[in-house]
Amino acid sequence: MTTIDRRAVLRGALGGSVAAAGSVAAPDQAAALARPPKVMPDDAVGILYDSTLCIGCKACMTGCKEANDMPVEVPASLADWNSGTWDTPIDLSGKTLNVIKVYRNGTMAEKDRAIDGFAFVKRHCLHCVDPSCVSVCPVGAMAKDPVTGIVSHDPETCIGCRYCVYGCPFGVPQFDFAGAFGKIAKCEMCSHLQAEDQTPACCDVCPTGASLFGRVDDLQAEAERRLAAAPGTSLSFPRGRLDDRGHPPNQAAVGRYIDAVYGVDEVGGTQVRYLSGVPFHMLGLPDLPARSFAAVSEGIQHTIYQNMIAPLVLLAGLLGFAHRASRRAHDPETAPLGAADGNGNGEGER
Amino acid sequence: MLPDRHEPFKAPLITPFTLILFTVSVIGLYFLVERFVYGLGAVTNLNQGYPWGIWVIADIKIATALGSGGFAVAALIYIFNRYEYHALMRPALLAAVLGYTLGSAAAFIDLGRYWNFYHIVLPDHAQPNSIMFEVALCMLAYTAVLWIEFAPVIADRFGWTKLKRVLRPIMVFFIALGILLPVMHQSSFGSVLLVMGSKLSPLWYSQWLPLYYLITAIAMGFAAVMVEATVASHRFRVPSEQHLLARLAKIVAVLIGLFLLMRLGELWLNDALWHVVAGDRHALMFQIELALFAIGFLVFASPGGRASERWSFIGASALVFATALYRLNAAIIGIEPLDNWSYFPSVPELMVTVGFVALEILLYLILVKLFPVLHTADVPTDNSVKA
Measured between beta carbons, which residues in chain A are less than 8 angstroms from residue B81? Predict the structure, then answer.
């Protein structure tokens, strides 16, 4: 497990004020040019991850590797004591689509506490409602399913430009730089299992219900039910999936939640939502504005290039000017850029 | 037919300097082979926090900005009807042809799945929401246009009068296209960063990024032309074009003045000026960038600076470095990664970039000796004697 330590704590201290003052505020001023936000499909599916229920067993990581046929990963820093039989990824990578990380602070005495505590977080694609990766991909290798809302990737189409890696606000798509024929890796919510009416592997194997699959609207209602319950009281937590095909529920004490669901508003909403006992940015979930950066980027670009009118008008104007200039210059070659320019000084021609 | 005022520069092709350039290019080529055999990870320090490195920024964004002299001078001559600048046209055009051809090559070698590169031009893969899509198509189209614009030079060399006759009536169209396309993709190089949002420091993130990139492309294009012209006049002992460069400098001063005013004004309006003095790495890089722009602006804003060949050379060089640093800052150094990622190019990675630069200079030196690129004025100035 990797530590989200110094940087996360630093963000805790500075995060709010710095973000509000600069990086988050600036794009919001582009609101006038941003295109309208995208709307989540009615039957969009997603995952609710409840950090307070997670025990850090990493069964979801194993389940993910098996379901998606991903290779074992041994980071260089762990190679000394791990000969390659034990899968020990420390973060998302070209070989790892899902990873459990831990927030640690001080004595780590208590779970889900920001000071002198620790907390788990599960990182994978959040399946944005208005995804940057889909917006930026120059060849349409990233696609959002119009029914389920799942963001998928087609390596046969991908040219490997890595703009999706660059642009993702969550740092999700990963390019495998090792080997001559790398490709992008990202969670596709086990769409191949869903096609067979099965549950995404990480949710299916989760023993506590920390990862729960379902319709996003239902998951949101479930999240709000948990937030409404009194901390410490006993509550029944569904496991696997929200509908009647889930595993028997887990009876557990309600955690002390931060009173918010991460993913409702962030960059136009995400289909993976988070509940946590510590502030979300400490878990590496960045503070983000409600507007998708894709909406800003596309809005400005399409304002400039609307129906190609501006470029065509500019071209027409340039043609007119260039034609006039080439005539006035009395260039024997109709001035193919100064070719055979008999008229060295065009000063008098203006 | 009137006598041609462009001539191949008469000098030996192989000199100690070209041999050095050749050697450096070959070293770069060696690491390029490694890149294709062992993959990007084996040669570069790219990582998930910095998926774009020096190849994307230096070999594409900066190299093409250097080549922007091609369209900037063309715009002066053909749009603003300043035919007197035509002496600068062919050298600038050659720099553009090389900058864009090698820039396109650099884009190809940086693609992680280069064997699929042709998807970018297939209609069923077209993704018009992607700024990269527009940039790629524009760059490819402009590279082709540049070769067409350069064709008369090649035709002159081999006496292909028929080709020149065919090109003559349509050349105006390519001249216009040759200004439109770089205006489009140079500004879009800035738009590419719009999606970065909070991952980019507020020192560089702005909704005006496309305009900033366009202004700096034009300014850098002129600055590069000034540097090239000065170096050429000294190295090749051809007459100085300082009287023309002084006029260019005035335009550059206005552009850079506007650019600085907008950027600082925007930071002020966003209450983000304190980032400039925050004392961190981003602040330092911004200060260096600002200082370089300021040197260029101050030199070119003063009549004395514009008139002096030495000061103009210093000012133009400062602006070339300023724009290069601006593009590095806005696309890589200014990133605020989500995790503890860091990036500095590896030695092989740097050698590929250095190799590209060496190859570009080498090809320039060879081509001006083989093709009628450099302008030979009828009246030699005292400069030709001095050099």
Answer: 321, 324-325, 328, 349-350
> Cα(B194)–Cα(A297) distance, rounded to whole angstroms?
5
Interface mutation target, options B7, B110, B113, B340, chain A, most CBs of A under 10 Å: B113
The ipTM is 0.90
As a whole number, the mean pLDDT across chain A is: 86
Q: How confident is the model at residue A212 (pLDDT cuts 50, 70, 90)?
A: very high
A3 touches chain B (CB under 8 A): no
Q: Which among B127, B210, B338 is the nearest to A138, CB-wise?
A: B127
CB < 8 Å from A in window 286-315 of B: none
User: Does the CA dihedral A313-A318-A321-A326 come out positive or negative?
Assistant: negative
pLDDT at A343 over 80: no
Chain A residue numbers touching B171 (CB-CB < 8 A): 326, 333-337
Nearest C-alpha neighbor of A137 from the set A158, A108, A114, A109: A158
The band of A331, judged by pLDDT with boundaries at 50, 70 and 90, is: low
Closest in B77, B90, B205 to A26, CB measured: B205
| Distance, first Cα to last Cα, chain A | 72
Instruction: Please report, for the domain that includes residue B331, its CATH number.
Output: 1.20.1630.10
Do A332 and A340 touch, CB atoms closer than 8 A?
yes
**A321 lies within 8 A of chain B by CB:** yes
Single out the residue of B209, B157, B199 nearest to residue B51, CA to CA: B199
State the nearest Cα–Cα gap between A303 and chain B, in angstroms: 12
Please tell me what DSSP assigns to residue A230. P
Q: Model confidence over A151-183: pLDDT tens digits?
A: 999 999 999 999 999 999 999 999 999 889 999
CATH 3.40.50.880 fits A6-289, yes or no: no
Element (H, E) at A252: strand A247-253
Length of chain B: 387
CB atoms within 10 A of CB B140: 17
CA distance B19 to chain A (A): 31
Report the alpha-carbon distance of residue B55 to residue B328 in Å, rounded: 11
Summarised one tens digit per residue, pLDDT across range B134-185 is 999 999 999 999 999 999 999 989 989 899 888 888 888 999 999 999 999 9
The answer to whether B268 contacts chain A (CB < 8 Å) is no
A312 touches chain B (CB under 8 A): no
Higher per-residue pLDDT: B383 or A211: A211
B386 within some domain: no
> What would the pLDDT profile of B181-240 be if each residue is shown by its tens digit?
999 999 999 999 999 998 999 999 999 999 999 999 999 888 988 888 888 788 777 677
- Whether residue B387 is contained in a domain is answered as no
Domain count, chain B: 1
Handedness of CA B49, B54, B55, B60 (dihedral sign): positive
Neighbours of A311 (CB within 10 A): 16
Host domain of residue B84: 6-379
Token look-up 């000063």 returns A347
B206 touches chain A (CB under 8 A): yes
Contact partners, residue B23, CB within 8 Å, separation at least 6: none
Any chain B CB within 8 A of the CB of A324?
yes
pLDDT at B379: 34
* Residue B1 resides in a domain: no
**Chain A contact probe: residue of B44, B172, B374, B381 with most A CBs at under 10 A:** B172
pTM for this entry: 0.88
Burial class (CB in 10 A: 0-12, 13-18, 19+), B374: buried
Of B113, B271, B338, the CB nearest to A159: B113
